[in-house]
Amino acid sequence: MTTQAAVSGHAVEHDEPNYIAIFIYLSVLTGVELVVYGVGLPQVAKVGLLIALAFAKAVLVAMYFMHLAIERKALAIIAITPIVLVTFLCFMLLPDLTTRMWTKFDHKIKVSGPANPDVPAPAPQQ
Amino acid sequence: MSEVAAADTHEHGAVLADQLEESVTPGNLGKLGMWSFLAGDAMTFGAGIAAYGALRIGNPNWPSPADYLGITTTAVMTFILICSSLTMVEALSGIQRGNQAKFRNFMALTVLGGIIFLGMQAFEWHHLIGERGMSIKRDLFDATFFILTGFHGCHVFGGVVYNSVLLIRGMMGKLPQAKAGLVEIAGLYWHFVDLVWILIFTFIYLI
Question: Which helix (H) or strand (E) holds B57?
Fold first, then answer.
């Protein structure tokens, strides 16, 4: 087989993943997410579990439906690049979040959620 | 140039061409292009979700999504997108094996899944805007919600059009087995749309 055929015919010749099994995993994980959402877990545990479940589902889709598990490494590098950059962005935002709270700028930001009796409404600007 | 030098140059050129073929060939150029596009798109979505997180974490007055957003509808929407990802890989499997009927049927189901998703999103937006009074200009909670879900909805719409074009070409007999790569590239886009929704469902609706 030529190199080109090996590359272009890659997706045809590999053993296909068991797509039905991946579908079932994704459906079950979605169900687990809803259970975690519904039960009264502490907020930190709930958020941690939901994020872990979401990333598990995302990895399943990328690895098997998008064939990253059987693709060449070059494509995996392209796929990982935005994850690295977004992670870097999140870390760059952390110092700002930990040193300044938006509440100091209430006069500039309006969030109209459900009425919270503990939080006084901001004074209207003149 | 001597014959030996010419042979060396030719051999070197062949080796170089072989190395180039390993990285970029006409056979995988489209896939490489789609992955590059998706990487850029992922950074856009990632920045949007990071900005949403920064605004939300920094604001103790941020409303609970559960007070506004229905989970039942969006859970069904999530399941529909997962189903459409399955039908997409089955469509690809069909055309890779020259089974045009399987390709057409599963691609039609994929398009249908996208249309149902968009219909449910339109229903949800209509409910939130009409009955809950949400608006993109009302506050940050509403703005981030509509921007992230709207941007994703635009991607779903693009995917429905993209897949429909392939389906129509298949129905017209203009998508032979040799062009299965086109379906694989469309599949990458569609699965990416599914993947992004998985994250939006968690970050916007569940947390």
Answer: helix B29-57
Cβ distance B138 to A79 less than 8 Å, yes or no, reads no
Inside any domain, residue B7: no
Strands (E), chain B: none
* Distance separating alpha carbons of residues B141 and B16, to the nearest angstrom: 55
Go through A53-63 and write b for each residue having 16 or more CB atoms within 10 A of its CB, e for each that does not. bbeebbebbbb
d(CA B42, CA B46): 6
CATH of the domain at B33: 1.20.120.80
pLDDT averaged per 10 residues in sequence order, chain B, 207 residues: 53 48 64 93 95 87 86 94 97 95 97 97 94 89 95 97 97 93 95 96 94
**Closest to A62 (Cα-Cα) out of B40, B195, B175, B65:** B195
CB pairs under 8 A between A and B: 169
Structure tokens at B43: 């950074």
In a domain, B143, yes or no: yes
Q: Report residue A80 CA to chain centroid gap.
A: 13
Has residue B58 been placed in a domain? yes
Q: How far is A24 from chain B (nearest CA, A)?
A: 10
Whether B65 and B204 have beta carbons less than 8 Å apart is answered as yes
Q: Please give the ipTM for the structure prediction.
A: 0.84
Q: pTM value?
A: 0.81
Residue A102 C-beta-side C-alpha neighbours within 13 Å: 15
